[in-house]
Design goal:
This protein has 385 residues and is α/β, with parallel strands linked by helices. Strands 4-3-2-1-5-6-7 form a 7-stranded parallel beta sheet, with helices on both faces. A 4-stranded mixed beta sheet has the order 9-8-10-11, covered by helices on one side. Strand 10 and strand 11 form a beta hairpin. Helix 1 packs across helix 10, helix 5 runs parallel beside helix 9 and helix 11 runs antiparallel to helix 12. The longest helix has 20 residues. The radius of gyration is 20 Å and the shape is globular. The structure holds NADPH dihydro-nicotinamide-adenine-dinucleotide phosphate and magnesium ion (MG). The site of NADPH dihydro-nicotinamide-adenine-dinucleotide phosphate (NDP) has 27 residues, from helix 1, helix 5 and helix 8.
């Protein structure tokens, strides 16, 4: 019996992780965490009987404290203060919280020397240097869950020193073929319609702006210790090739599969073994043609923005990610236009003086200031006040 924590259990990756656990069997779900989705969390606690549940939303915590008598053997925690004391005996943690809110539990998990299957890319973007430091010091391990990074991880096995470049595939999102002049007409409903993946709202908007690919460039830089000049993005609308690695002799390895996050989630749990999976597998006779094209850097400036922020390092990727979270949330509340998203993030990055990052508290301080600046800049752009 293996013991697992699912952080962000009520989200898209969190619920798929629990599906994988159900299919694999032989797992005890020891820890769950959620924010506001009380109904789903309630059902999950009834089903899995976790020993610890972490609530990051104050009202949700008060709600579950109030009905704790219904759940014998489950302790409820307000935020992450007790988290490090609850990790005894865990085999793996799945990090499926969205945004920089995932930084704290991810770092605590790594400090405990555990394996984390990491979907929460924003932690790598804001705290990549700290993550590498903790990995080296405490012997923990990250198995990427993000499909591209899982693919690269699989292609790299054994040969990291002979890599020429990492080739990150991107579906291109719903506006891949839209003319630049039509971007002004994009609605929230258009942006939430991802052609290949069903995901949480924030990452779906990031995919539409292609800032998601930007975040993944920085994520790849840290996960695979790759220089930014060796990370290339290619648009591949079918989302069958999940990413590729080119080696020094020119050979390219790719990992293929149907777009189904349960496959990389399962690998993060079973690695280095592979378990038979009940999900529909790729049938190469049915696969049809695969297409690859260069990204449109001019209409999706979020990609270059991420290369620039990643290369600058220090505060730049923190400011970029924090502002992006604020701006995307405003778009999801119908307060700004789609075309306001990336320019506002770029303006935040430009207006914030660059600094070196000293500590985790310093990351949180930069993040908080960036969010405040983004909120200020947004006031000028609000279309539906
Ligand atoms: P969702 O929005 O579906 O779920 C997010 C989870 O995080 C929910 O459990 C939510 O709780 C919780 N949460 C939200 N806000 C906070 C907070 N402030 N503090 C603590 N927990 C919080 O996101 P996804 O599952 O789509 O994405 C999760 C991560 O995985 C993201 O970093 C994303 O980039 C990455 N990822 C996702 C993919 C996908 O297919 N969905 C693919 C690749 C990467 P609640 O619902 O209870 O409020
Ligand atoms: Mg991805």
């Amino acid at each position: 019996m293996k013991h697992l924590a699912v952080l962000g259990s009520t989200g898209s990756i969190g619920t798929q992780t629990l599906e994988v656990v159900d299919a694999l069997g032989d797992y005890e779900v020891a820890i769950l965490s959620a924010h506001k989705n009380r109904d789903l969390l309630y059902k999950q606690i009834k089903k899995y009987h976790p020993r610890d549940v972490f609530l990051t939303d104050k009202d949700s915590y008060a709600y579950f404290r109030g009905i704790a008598g219904e759940f014998a053997g489950t302790r409820f925690h307000d935020g992450w203060a007790d988290y490090a004391d609850c990790l005894e005996g865990l085999d793996c943690v799945i990090g499926a919280i969205t945004g920089a809110a995932g930084i704290e539990p991810t770092l605590l998990t790594l400090r405990a020397g555990l394996r984390i299957g990491l979907a929460n890319k924003e932690t790598m973007v804001e705290a990549g240097d700290l993550v590498l430091d903790l990995l080296a010091r405490y012997g923990g391990e990250i198995i990427p869950v993000d499909s591209e990074h899982s693919a690269i991880f699989q292609c790299l096995e054994g040969k990291p020193e002979e890599v020429e470049k990492i080739i990150l595939t991107a579906s291109g999102g719903p506006f891949r073929t839209w003319a630049a002049e039509d971007f002004a007409k994009i609605t929230k409903a258009d942006a939430l319609k991802h052609p290949n993946w069903s995901m949480g709202a924030k990452i779906t908007i990031d995919s539409a702006t292609m800032v998601n690919k930007g975040l993944e460039i920085i994520e790849a830089h840290y996960l695979f210790r790759a220089d930014y000049d060796r990370i290339q993005v290619v648009v591949h609308p079918e989302s069958i090739v999940h990413s590729m690695v080119q080696f020094v002799d020119g050979a390219v390895k790719a990992q293929l599969g149907l777009p189904d996050m349960r496959v990389p989630i399962q690998l993060a749990l079973t690695y280095p073994a592979r378990a038979r999976a009940p999900y529909k597998a790729l049938d190469v006779w049915q696969m049809g043609s695969l297409h690859f094209e260069a990204p449109r850097f001019d209409v999706f400036p979020g990609i270059q923005m991420a290369y620039d922020c990643g290369k600058k390092g220090g505060s730049a990727p923190i400011v970029m990610n924090a502002c992006n979270e604020v701006v995307v949330a405003a778009f999801l509340r119908d307060e700004i236009r789609f075309t306001d998203i990336v320019p506002t993030v770029m303006a935040c990055v430009e207006k914030t003086p660059w600094t070196r990052v000293e500590s985790l508290d310093h990351i949180f301080q930069i993040d908080t200031e960036a969010r405040a600046l983004a909120a200020d800049l947004l006031k000028a752009r609000v279309v539906h006040p």
